[in-house]
Amino acid sequence: xxxxxxxxxxxxxxxxxxxxxxxxxxxxxxxxxxxxxxxxxxxxxxxxxxxxxxxxxxxxxxxxxxxxxxxxxxxxxxxxxxxxxxxxxxxxxxxxxxxxxxxxxxxxxxxxxxxxxxxxxxxxxxxxxxxxxxxxxxxxxxxxxxxxxxxxxxxxxxxxxxxxxxxxxxxxxxxxxxxxxxxxxxxxxxxxxxxxxxxxxxxxxxxxxxxxxxxxxxxxxxxxxxxxxxxxxxxxxxxxxxxxxxxxxxxxxxxxxxxxxxxxxxxxxxxxxxxxxxxxxxxxxxxxxxxxxxxxxxxxxxxxxxxxxxxxxxxxxxxxxxxxxxxxxxxxxxxxx
Amino acid sequence: xxxxxxxxxxxxxxxxxxxxxxxxxxxxxxxxxxxxxxxxxxxxxxxxxxxxxxxxxxxxxxxxxxxxxxxxxxxxxxxxxxxxxxxxxxxxxxxxxxxxxxxxxxxxxxxxxxxxxxxxxxxxxxxxxxxxxxxxxxxxxxxxxxxxxxxxxxxxxxxxxxxxxxxxxxxxxxxxxxxxxxxxxxxxxxxxxxxxxxxxxxxxxxxxxxxxxxxxxxxxxxxxxxxxxxxxxxxxxxxxxxxxxxxxxxxxxxxxxxxxxxxxxxxxxxxxxxxxxxxxxxxxxxxxxxxxxxxxxxxxxxxxxxxxxxxxxxxxxxxxxxxxxxxxxxxxxxxxxxxx
Lengths: 337, 340
Ligand SMILES: Cc1ncc(C[n+]2csc(CCOP(=O)(O)OP(=O)(O)O)c2C)c(N)n1
Known about the structure:
heterodimer; A: two-stranded antiparallel sheet; about 45% helix; about 10% strand; globular; B: alpha/beta; about 35% helix; about 20% strand
């Protein structure tokens, strides 16, 4: 059984608005990224997370700047939600020298320690064991820092998931394992690759709480993340959150998503968390439609500015091939062929 | 003692074996730097202080938060070491035997070795991977392989294989303070044979070979427990009138090209001996480099001795045949010495 949360925290009006801001930031950034690729302005593998906005947004409002995340190739939404500045993010996506990683990581390997984005990995399942190391460091440092490991449902079938959850539990690490269950691993349907109906059930095997969360409901994600983060900060150890959602796009930009049925996709888009949450904020009197439109316009301008900035940046020079292999820059040049 | 005779300074030494030397290095490093951590299966004192006792005493002294026994989870061990290293610590992670590094290959090759580069220099992964291997104990195919070439072929990780206990201590002290990932391969017998270690043995730089013995007819390059075999062969060669210069490589990547090539140019002949498989082994890299640098200057083609193309066998007789033995080295050295 997946556990049930008894004490549910609710975000206040300002926090709800902040969650919405982050969701819109993700959506506008994603939309404009796909537009740039369609127009041939950038060439990069791109894994859209459209539909999954609410998960990292509702989690990130609970995180401090120095809390850390380890995420995956489909993780730009996690970084945007953690408020990574968009100019260096875009420069990296475009492979420019002003990118977060000087153009050497690209969209699958962004790193930005200032906003707590420590690792972005292209290897399915690898965010979790490394997140544990940050958790261990927090225990040694005696801080209350938490680390969030983001991953997909497919990743929960990889050995690294099981090893990482077990170790985190034995060591009582302040790590939140957040599975963004969008129903597909590449082209494989959930039930064809995963032995349990709910990934959260797997937590029981590792002696930690596991919750199945409505990943399209910001308040549900918030409540569960709140409990998990409190638990981690109190030294009680890790939690597994399975956030159920759906991705609206194919696995990678350009795939024709024939493995999804028209009906299920239509139903998912119908349940799009963005317009739903927007309406709720208006209905509850948290913000007016005009306020939210103005917010969207402001964010769109921010993204466009980042794109213009990135396009104007230089590409890295070939010297970069010899740099950052080791701390000593000369090593790669002089000792290695 | 007269003041006008030059004498080698007297260095006070103690006899210890490799595992005592590593143990001493870990103690010193942990004492000097609170950022140094140790983790691995069975390594804390409650679990016996490591399978061969290298980490014995550490957890009692430094606590189980810094010296952590882990579950049997090689990916989790390496992942935790990587994260802690990126967070500013200097973890020494034990993968009990080198064959088990295969289970953690993703963490080592895709993450530890590459995160600095892929992050444009923002991430540092200063960790040490300790692992043990070597044929000679009839452990057969899954407990005795040398995979240094796999790691040497991967950009971003340094590969060290010490021979003497003094080198173990010195190289460990350097590796722990190195800002990048280093894998140290503890090579079978080298852990158990006592030798003299200077009482105050300090760090020995990574990437520097050691000219163990000067000679004029031929250079033999080797490392790890194969050095014992080489030294046995060299005794016989010396008796037979072949003057051998012996170079212990110590670091496989980056390897000390300058020392090896200078020696090979001087003697005119080079023989590389290692325990790893001969095909695609480190000997191939060294031989090719020597050929490129010294074309026309060598009196004989570069020789290479290594294991045959098969798994490490169990039967003692086969295992002896698998490992390069002194007579093979003697024969190959004489063959090369007779050329040119
Ligand atoms: C170890 C590994 N195996 C295979 C792949 C190829 N691959 C990339 S994404 C992916 C699907 C992963 O699905 P999931 O974990 O559910 O994450 P999602 O993409 O749905 O967010 C696969 C198989 C990979 N990158 N790494």
